[in-house]
TrEMBL record:
Signal among keywords: yes
UniProt-listed PANTHER family: TREHALASE
UniProt key word Magnesium: no
Protein name as catalogued: Trehalase
């Protein structure tokens, strides 16, 4: 399909008309990431000398994983009674893939483990024929009718996308050529090759045109990279970390096409949606596009792409200013500040998580049923949490300690996202202004005409001024000089939140270094002391929070973006306050190095590290501390200072987490590291697998995926790969071979401490958590 034809298509002619008329008023969509798909690059936008994509002739429909509907009730049984339908959402006009009677009825029947499955399945005929068939069921729909409806009227999920093979794929990019450790180098190159499994193009032959069928896909004009698993389309903030890895892999054309896809979306919708589906069109995600453009330009000096991007970047910033800004009178300075929050206009369950949202608002466990207004408010909170990218976390809850690892719904009902002014969002937008000013300066230097040069210089000055105002607001509302941390500001309580989260690293990454940190070495270390605690008390890497709730953006889950932000935050610490070694803590307990109330919890509330089986380490024990380093933290170096020591330890611990979970699920390095035996891999249910790179990891161990959340753990995985390749390039000289746990010994230990024997494998090895789902959703990519 030609670019112009594809852009003319939305989900149908009616939807295209709706969006062209309402683009400026649209709100963005966030949250989830789909599985594997690809799109090819337009020649006019490809970078010179880069590998170019071609659609693989080997990619047929056999690579599409099609879920089969299955219900637990008898097929002849009628569905249980339903709650009243939510209001029609103007931004989502499909009667099939948006909130309405069809989607609600299907989700009440629960024919698939994942709510996202149905909304990713294109119809096999016209929308009107599918709607008519559903209407013919009448009011007493049975489970069997739902199953028949799905089998008769829908195709395989993700059918509209196809894998793309790159010609001249770089075998050994320069960024990885000089990695000293052979195991780290071998693994890095293995991860580099996985881009071939994640690059997608729109499948021209499967796009619904002229009303012949209906799909939720937003077709893209250029090649892109998908995260993996159920996240089978392009996602917004995932792509920032993917792009960092693509640049290290010298895949400049794919990085270029990623940016042009986003520019197309901004021109069309006024913003970048959460992901590439129509059901994401009411929300965005953390606005990292401008930072992506700067990273790409710094690497390629691509003036043509910069020229196109400049006015489009302005348009995105305008969208955030118009739709997500809020004025807050500071209780600390009595000054009114303009800052930003996630605030999605939504009064219905998210289509991709319809069953989960519906249950939260209509669950039988509610002592008093919600009113329509209360349901609408909850749906808005759920969508706003998805827009944040942190879906979900105790940081958004009115009572963060309400969580129960076995049931997160009560905590979700207390979400207060819209009244939480997120420190990370404001830091990202601060850096967007700084980076856009830099890009205007680069543009001005390349312009010969004095008038145009002066115009770009003036715009650069404007964005520096905007950044300065936002920096002042961030330091006022979010920075606590006594606790030495950045904390979200809560407009409900008119105060900063108590708990420290990984969002603390974002302002420091953006270059906002408080005076207390700049001028005092003790305070500077104090601001980063939680990283020291994690490295010494836990086996894994940096958690999103220190509160255990069962939500996926809480302890123990550790996410690749946070590793990146923490390392870059450390890189911004001034040299004059970073030369000393890490202090020796009182009683050998790194908790004692934290500033008062830094984490917002007591030491008794700090999650404990599991040791063997179900045992835990003592609360005051730094079980991973070694002389000048930590376990799986690389080799100590004389005189490196506390910043470089923490960077080395974090980089190695992340490399270890990705490597060991991959190795424990069937990975191998031919000629260097043999695959584990089938007897051993049987303990992680991986005898038929070739190694998984997961979307999230754990603070508690280095050979497992993260846990919790509203969907199973996903493999692939775009941002995991991107951050690993970035770390391999930036920290290559301090990376050493990871030391992985002995899987057999862990299983024996767990069985000895667990009455049910083998059931303990799921507890000890998080790699098992969701592994079946990984196989179901990603086998077509990973085999």
């Amino acid at each position: 399909m030609k670019s112009s034809a594809r852009l003319a298509w939305a989900l149908s002619t009616a939807a295209a008309t709706f969006w062209s008329a309402n683009a400026q008023g649209v709100t963005t969509s966030t949250g989830l990431r789909p599985s594997l798909t690809v799109s090819s690059t337009s020649g006019s936008h490809s970078a010179t000398g880069a590998a170019t994509p071609t659609t693989s002739s080997q990619n047929t429909d056999t690579s599409i994983v099609t879920a089969t509907p299955s219900v637990t009730a008898s097929l002849g049984d009628p569905l249980p009674s339903q709650a009243a339908l939510p209001p029609v959402q103007a931004w989502c006009p499909s009667k099939i893939f948006c909130a309405g009677k069809i989607l609600q009825t299907i989700n009440v029947a629960s024919p698939y483990p994942d709510s996202k499955t149905i909304v990713d399945k294109p119809t096999n005929g016209t929308a009107s024929s599918a709607i008519a068939a559903f209407d013919a069921f009448g009011n007493n729909v049975t489970y069997g009718q739902v199953v028949d409806f799905l089998e008769d009227h829908f195709q395989g999920e993700g059918l509209e996308l196809e894998a793309t093979t790159l010609s001249n794929f770089p075998a050994s990019p320069a960024a990885f050529a000089r990695i000293p450790d052979p195991y780290v180098k071998g693994f890095t190159l293995a991860v580099h090759k996985i881009w071939n499994l994640l690059i997608r193009d729109t499948n021209e032959s499967q796009i619904c045109m002229g009303g012949e069928c209906e799909s939720s896909l937003i077709p893209l004009n250029h090649t892109f990279v998908v995260p993996g698993g159920r996240f089978r389309e392009q996602y917004y903030w995932d792509s920032k970390f993917i792009l960092d890895g693509l640049l290290k892999s010298e895949l400049y054309s794919v990085a270029n096409s990623t940016l042009h896809n986003f520019m197309d979306e901004i021109e069309r919708f006024g913003f970048i949606p959460n992901g590439g589906r129509i059901y994401y069109l009411n929300r965005s995600q953390p606005p990292v596009f401008i930072t992506m453009v700067l990273s790409y330009y710094n690497q390629t000096q691509d003036a043509a792409t910069l020229s196109r991007a400049l006015p489009i970047m302005e348009k995105e910033l305008t969208w955030w200013q118009t739709n997500r800004s809020v004025r807050i009178k500071s209780p600390y300075t009595n000054q009114t500040r303009v800052v930003y929050h996630y605030n999605v206009n939504n009064t219905a369950p998210r289509p991709e998580s319809y069953a989960e949202d519906y249950e939260a608002a209509n669950g039988a466990d509610l002592s008093t049923p919600y009113t329509d207004a209360e349901k609408g408010a909850l749906y808005a909170e759920l969508a706003s949490g998805a827009e944040s990218g942190w879906d979900y976390s105790s940081r958004w809850a009115k009572n963060p300690h309400l969580g129960d690892a076995t049931n997160q719904t009560p905590l979700l009902r207390t979400l207060n996202v819209r009244n939480t002014t997120a420190v990370d969002l404001n830091a990202i937008l601060y850096k967007a202004h700084i980076d856009l000013a830099k890009l205007y300066t680069f543009s001005a230097k390349s312009l010969a005409r004095r008038v145009l040069k002066r115009a770009d210089e003036e715009k650069a000055s404007y964005h520096r001024d905007q950044a300065a105002m936002l920096k002042t607001a961030i330091l006022d509302l979010f920075w606590d000089k006594d606790r030495l941390g950045f904390y979200d500001f809560n407009t409900t309580s008119n105060a900063r939140n108590e708990q420290l989260t990984a969002a603390h690293w974002y302002p420091l990454w953006a270059g906002i270094i408080p005076n207390e940190v700049k001028s005092n070495a003790t305070a500077a270390f104090g601001a980063f002391s939680s990283l020291n605690l994690v490295m010494r008390k836990y086996n894994g890497t940096i958690p999103a929070t220190f509160i255990t709730t069962g939500l996926q953006w809480d302890f123990p889950n550790a996410w690749p973006p946070h590793i990146y932000f923490a390392l870059e935050a450390l890189a911004n610490v001034p040299a004059n306050v970073s030369r000393a070694a890490i202090p020796t803590p009182q009683d050998g307990n790194s908790w004692n190095l934290l500033p008062s109330n830094h984490l917002g919890i007591t030491q008794d509330q700090l999650p404990l590290q599991t040791t063997d089986g179900n045992n835990t380490a003592p609360a005051g024990s730094d079980i991973n501390a070694l002389n000048g380093t930590v376990y799986n933290g690389g080799n100590a170096t004389e005189g490196e200072g506390w910043v470089k020591e923490l960077q080395r330890e974090i980089a190695n611990r992340y490399m270890t987490s990705v490597f060991c979970s991959w190795y424990a699920t069937g990975g191998e390095l031919p000629g260097l590291l043999p695959r584990l035996s089938n007897d051993t891999l049987n303990l992680t249910s991986s005898t038929d697998q070739n190694g998984h790179l997961f979307e999230k990891f754990s603070a508690l161990d280095v050979d497992s995926a993260g846990r919790g959340g509203e969907y199973a753990v996903q493999a692939g995985f775009g941002w995991t790969n991107g951050v690993l390749l970035w770390i391999a390039s930036e920290y290559k000289d301090v990376l050493v071979r990871p030391i992985c746990p002995n899987i057999t010994e862990q299983a024996i230990s767990a069985n000895a401490n667990t009455p049910n024997g083998g059931v303990a494998r799921v507890i000890v090895h998080g790699v098992l958590f969701g592994l079946v789902a990984c196989v179901l959703t990603a086998v077509g990519m990973l085999l």
